[in-house]
Amino acid sequence: MGGAGSTSLAAETPDTLGAFPRLTPLQLQTLSGVGTTAPVSEGQVLARAGEPLGSFFVVIAGRVMVHDGEPSPPGGQDAGRDEPGGAGAQVEIHGPGRFVGDIGLLEGQPSFSTIAALERGEVLEVPLAQLERIVTGDPLIGDVILRAYLIRRSMAIGYGSGLRIIGSRFSPDTRRLLDFAARNRVPHRLLDLDHDPAAEAIVRRIGLDVTDVPVVIVAGSRILRNPSIVEVSDALALRRSRPPATTDVLVVGAGPAGLAATVYAASDGLSVVLSDAVATGGQAARSARIENYLGFPSGISGAELAERANLQVAKFGATLFAPSTAQDLSFEEGALEVRFSDGTSVSPRAVVVASGMEYNRLSAENLDRFEYTSVYYAATINEARECGTEPVVVVGGGNSAGQAAVFLAGTASHVHLIVRGTDLNASMSRYLIVQVESHPRISVHLQSVVVQANGTAQLESVIVEHLTSGAREEVATAFLFVFVGATPATSWLGSGIERDERGYLITGTRSTPGSRRQPLETSVPGVFAVGDARSGSVKRISAAIGEGASVIKMVHDHLETGGCRL
């Protein structure tokens, strides 16, 4: 890490958001009991971008610099960094009492930054196992570290630090990688081959062929050419090792219901495998802010809720298997088996189906041309950064649409909210209605639908039709956000399990009065359903978490009375 001398007079990075707290003498004393102090010399590298951060470091004396990105990938000069026109590198300076790292440290991810000493000094080094124990067991220190780490990850996502994804924004493969990074809350930035000169320069320097794109540059010098989701996941240590062939409980779907079921089952001493096709958190993780969740008066982001649950999953020893797509369920002679698309099979004593729902798409004319380039089903920091100040259109009348409209209005020049219903009260919470209707940059179009999409290479406008009058209006936008409901993601279960007329899983004795089926048990003994995939469930995060917690008592009863033993 060169150039330390040139920053010898640099000021410490101010802590304006609570991301860089200074530990108290008592907190430092506690950490000293599980760590060791070591001298550092000027320029000494504590962690290098692209490599796992082996320990938790606290500055005791001197200062350290945290630099976004590092060395050049093979074939060129600084290919891992934005060139002119990009965001540029982020640099932080920290003095005594501050600590480095972000939430990825607790999840085994490689560092997205290089950390080096600016001058001679001393650091406290704490092994990761001890840090995990403190974060999950000592609220006086753990909450300070965890909150700072979550804020830092949010800031990194906002900056566009971390991964560089090089490709065309009109490419479905590029969109697939962007969606994966966003769903897994990985900081990233798109270098668009169609608009960004830096992207073309990097491609030339590395000598990439058209078949190589999209390309992912992991922090440091690792280049992935047209990678699969699994390859990216492995590079970021997101994908855990293969699950055991047998387990007490297999939870399919890692949204709020699945995460709750996993935490409660594992904390009860059951062996648990948690799987998900993409990432933990489900649809809730894509909510910019959940304001009506009990116990969080100022609200909590879906991403933070998911990250905190992830730590609990690890704390209680459950196995996380994601990304992994459940392909089918067999239940012959009382033996359960779930097969995954990668060939893995798991034979559990009980299955909890928490696979949630899949977003519905609009049937507007020509919209399929822009599905992978201009249509979005979530509104997070990543999407807001991509939209910038451009006007956006949000379609839907529920809470998800309301949350998206309010969030996007913070950066977009204008938000058009298209609602089929006659008013917002039918499906949106009152607190959101107040925010939507009072926001100066949000226009609500009631009794209206999007009927057509226009554009050449990208979306340029949509046609909005008023249902009563038939009048049409063209609204200029390159970004369309769709929140028009969803259908249950249960096709992988096959036809041998009872569903209602809309495809949701039937549980309890509603369809078979007099049976001994438990309230959350499906027509297949030992297979339970919770959350959005279950018929009659309340489509709220708190309700999903409640079902996930409640189902484990029923799982215990099943295992004690009829579940096959491993």
Count of DSSP helices?
Answer: 13
* Parts with pLDDT < 50 across at least 5 consecutive residues: 1-8, 70-87
Strand content: 15-25%
Radius of gyration: 25 Å
Mean pLDDT: 90
The biggest sheet, with number of strands, parallel, antiparallel or mixed sense and barrel status, is:
7 strands, mixed
SSE class: alpha/beta
Helical fraction: 25-40%
Q: How far apart are the first and last residues' alpha carbons, in Å? A: 53 Å
Q: Count the beta strands.
A: 28
SSE map:
Elements: H1 25-32, E1 36-40, E2 45-47, E3 55-61, E4 64-68, E5 91-94, H2 103-106, E6 113-117, E7 121-127, H3 128-137, H4 139-159, E8 163-167, H5 172-183, E9 188-192, H6 197-206, E10 215-217, E11 223-225, H7 229-235, E12 246-252, H8 256-267, E13 272-275, H9 302-315, E14 319-321, E15 326-332, E16 335-340, E17 345-353, E18 357-359, E19 375-376, H10 381-387, E20 392-395, H11 399-408, E21 415-418, H12 430-438, E22 442-445, E23 448-455, E24 459-466, E25 472-476, E26 480-482, E27 486-488, E28 527-529, H13 541-561
Helix pairs in contact: 3-4, 8-9, 8-13, 11-12
